[in-house]
Design a protein that fits this description.
Blueprint lengths: L9 E4 L8 E4 L6 E3 L7 H9 L11 E3 L5 H4 L2 H8 L2 E5 L3 H4 L9 H4 L10 E3 L4 E4 L2 E7 L8 E5 L4 E5 L17 H16 L3 E4 L8 H17 L1 H20 L2 E2 L3 H7 L1 H11 L3 H15 L2 E4 L2 E4 L4
Parallel strand pairs: 3-4, 4-5, 5-6, 10-11
Antiparallel strand pairs: 1-2, 2-3, 7-8, 8-9, 9-10, 12-14, 13-14
GO molecular function, one term: zinc ion binding
Protein name: beta-lactamase
InterPro entries: Beta-lactamase_class-B_CS, Metallo-B-lactamas, NDM-1-like, RibonucZ/Hydroxyglut_hydro
Length: 308
Amino acid sequence: MNTPLLPQSVRVIQRGWLNCNQVVLLEGGNNVLIDSGYCTHREQTLERLAGPEGLDGKPLERLINTHCHSDHMGGNAAVAHATGCTITIPEGEAKHVVPWTEQSVWMKRFDQRADPFHFDATLAAGDTFEAAGFEWQAIAAPGHDMDALMYFEPRNRILVSGDALWENGMGFVWPEHAGPHIAAAQETLSRIEALDPATVIPGHGAPFHDAKGSIASVRSKLEAFARDPAKNARHVVKVLFVFALLDKQSMHVDDIADYVGTCACYRELSDRFLGLDNAALAQWLVADLERAGAISSAKGVIRPTMSA
């Protein structure tokens, strides 16, 4: 959509929860895309990017990522192949992409996918780039991804926040006992508060105005997770499983115990924080998600209720 909250040269293609949003920054000879979505929706990404809500038939010169999780860079290879654009990633993410392995972007550990790609340049916190007729600042955004960046345009006070802040949350923060991730996420929220953005374009969900209200809500959740890592672990298990279900579209209930037993992230979280065997973890997971309305169940098959 081309939201009225933004300059005409800044466009947001809002996606479902398997994909991240795509941000299109239009400027003749220097059209930029921020983030590319999940690899299994590459054809839909290319169609929407080329259409009236995106480039509207114009060429793409550069693709920039906020971070290198699979829902934000899984479409990099397809976009670069279709458009001939260059790819720029956060400097800290290069170690996850080169060399490309089955563990790159969480694929083996988290049962996620992405098409291998080559990047042409990196950005670090403090760097700037020109796009959409404005200068954008790269801001460190650790927490959900410790190497992530946000991009801030100070004239209009627009923040492309990636997964550091959504209107009603943020990307999950890995559970830990007195570890660095929650503290880093809190520091990122303080950076956003100091920027005082007028409009936030999140990685998921619609652009919004009330950054202060969202920051307060996320801070409260992070404080609760810091006090109770098991609560955070339950949250992360559910987020990861729903993401996998959005990718697969359906799973047989009888297969879920084997699935969580063979996918390393679930066993790691349960062994460290929950103390549930595979069958108990699967039973709790399905019951909790069904009660929350995140999945539906019929004839022994579960499906996601949200849009992919």
